[in-house]
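Worked example 4.2. Below are the chains of a multi-component assembly; read each line carefully before continuing.
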Amino acid sequence: MGRWQRRRITNALATALMTLSATAAVTVLLIILGHVVMQGLPSLNVAFFTERPLPPGEVGGGVAPAILGTLEMLGVAGLIGIPVGIATAIYLSEYGRGNLARAISFSVDLIAGLPSIAIGVFVWAWLVRNVVGQYNGLAGGVALAIIMIPILTRTVEETLRIVPDPLREASLALGIPRWKTILRVVLPTAQAGVITGVVLSLARAGGETAPLLLTALGNQFFNLDLLQPTAALPIQIYNYARSPYPDWQAKAWGGALVLITLIGVLSALTRWAVGRRTHAY
Amino acid sequence: MVSLSNHERVLAEVDVLGRGANRGDRAFQTVVTAIAACVPIMLLGIVILLLLDALPALLRYGGAFLTQTTWDPVAEKFGAAAYVYGTVVTSLIALLLATPIGVGCALFIAEYAPIWMRAPVSFVIELLAAIPSIIYGLWGFFILAPIMRGAIEPFLKNSLGNVPAIGALFSGPAVGRDLLVAGVILSIMILPTITAVSREILRAVPDTQREGMLALGATRWETIRKAVLPYARGGIVGAAILGLARALGETMAVTMVIGNSSTQIRASLFTPGYTMASAIANQFTEADKEIYFSAIVSVALILLVVAAIMNILARLLVWSVARAPRAS
Amino acid sequence: MLTSLLAPPRPEPVEQEPPRAGMCARDVSAWYNVSRKAIENVSLGVAANHITAIIGPSGCGKSTFIRCLNRMHEVVRGARAAGTVELNGQDIYAPNVDPVRVRRVVGMVFQKPNPFPMMTIFENVVAGLRLEGGHSNRALEEIAERALHQAALWDEVKDVWKRASGISLSGGQQQRLCIARTLAVEPTVILMDEPCSALDPIATYRIEELMIELKKDYTIAIVTHNMQQASRVSDDTAFMLAEEDRIGRLVEFGPTSRIFTNPTERRTEDYITGRFG
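Applying the procedure described above to all three chains together yields the following structure tokens:
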């Protein structure tokens, strides 16, 4: 009987360990989110969103330049990244066969796996130190574009592949040329997924700090000139966190709350509104 | 991979249909292909530019770049060994902590959880993955580091500090900004990656394998241990490697808790240090000289190459399990 | 503890009637989740040292039923079974019975051969023995060799059994390997869920021969969609059918010869003569 009992105990122990692991993961998430909310909420007021930072040590002000800067650079990133991402996705889904397609697909996956700091160094070496000569927001936007392209491509490609072939065949059988079929039939059918891809890749890019640090550097002032250093929310959080001023540290948490709320809301919204990804768990 | 997927077959047919067709199609295809081709070109551009800019330092310091610890911009002696050491140590700690828990989570979702629990738990894991690195850094800096310094590190020091051999890992003053804290934060960050990939791998294990073992009178755990995990082994290793690749490149969370102050390689995990990524983030503004700049780019290049190799390796492993069982 | 479930019945002296090591199912019903009932009130007896065949069209619940006989049905998340299944006089669905122990004495061979690819042929055969532990290597080899002989696979694998992987064999050989694996733990009853449907005719024939040979020592229940197979190998046959409500029920059960020549139920006759299914 001893052996059998041992087997049963081992089984029960294993079940307990697995459950513990999952509980640990959930608990850690709740702890982190809890802290962000608790520490960040007190700092959020109108000034936080509309004013620029005050000189160090003074209480008050806000992180508006950082929010604006993030939006500016995401705009640049989107301008570059959305066309490239969608075009690449269309190519891989609708035309992709042969060696070029394999190379492109491989490149997409590889870039997705590159450390964001390495991408930052690349843009730093190329645009900051050479082309423009100083830290600038344009370089930041380019870095974010490089980061968002693989994410967007993969998401949209998947969505396009799900569009049923009979739809394409019917359109072509009616004499509609291939390019119109893609633009007027396939893409609109997949539009929910495309929008999700765009929103999610932008959200992901918006949270990146390292590449922006090396390109846009950050700025305490409002800046609309993309050839100047530009503020960004993640950089602001980083700088404030390391400062010795409690007010700034509190604002760092506030910024974190804004960032995470944005990402969370956007992800949840698009997922729910679209519901096309039926994850079989 | 022998037969074309249905999708590809339709595309092939479509080509035949559209063969004589109009300039619009050709133009569109050309434009789309040209834009898509920018992606590999961009990749090549990244590698080539980094290589070119790193060349001066690589040529000047050679292999010593990786073995020397002296990083002295003034004297123009650049050795990144301490950064490499920091990267390796923190990543290993992260891997050791995150792999068992991550695989455990994946097993929980795939094998134990009731159906209604799968979606919420998976969602939680995805949320963990979506949290930006800087927020992990913030939390690590303000919440985790004080706990480590105040409670956990002294505990480790008192309990394990006197054990021969591994005691050296837990010696010295516990400041709370060191390799260990960085490793712990990294482990939380790579946990979702390992869990998500492992979960996919476990789903790829056919149910007939589980049934075969259960029908012989195995408990649930025995089924997992003897039928599921051996089948999934390669893929789980791939998941761990993917986690490792992520850990290597992490910058912000690490840089906030690792101390960024010492380029000495010491045995204790309680020493502050650098990882390659955190060193770059900390020093790039000071790269006034060309050789300094080149040294920093070299560090980035090494990171890039290593991360890329790991990604490729991991994908091959994961792919092989998803396709077919490998006969031993 | 139901110790008697673990050991096969000891052979009695020839004059006496050997104890019946059969299974008796009474009012077995099964669900896949709260709303989807698969089978209802199936009652039949799997006689000792007999082969009992369960036939019927696709979707009639025969696989579901046979999986209730070794409590494999409830492995699927959300699935449930009710009723009584007696083995050696004890109900395997009694509250204090651990399904894991039931499966040790009621073995199963599946439709698609499922040897473990990461194990050698030898390791596959002894996989069940290794679970319970306590066997020396010598003992494992002996038991494995005996099982492979019983499964008519020994001659084909004896040179490579410790080196070759379980999946390096042909389909028919893999299925015989799975049978050997089941035999190695010496179950009382062997359940077979369409064991030949993934095999070619020659492999099928060899397995049918094997079944007839095995019934001398074991009790066998087989699900098959192949009526000719059922009439060839089985002693008793059960015919199941699912009506419009998609719930499978037992239509008729009796000796094979009678079922196939003179069935009582009209529906059975219609199925046998090929009018549907």
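Take a moment to check your reading of the output against the notes. Chain B touches chain A through 99 residues (CB under 8 Å). The radius of gyration of chain B is 24 Å.
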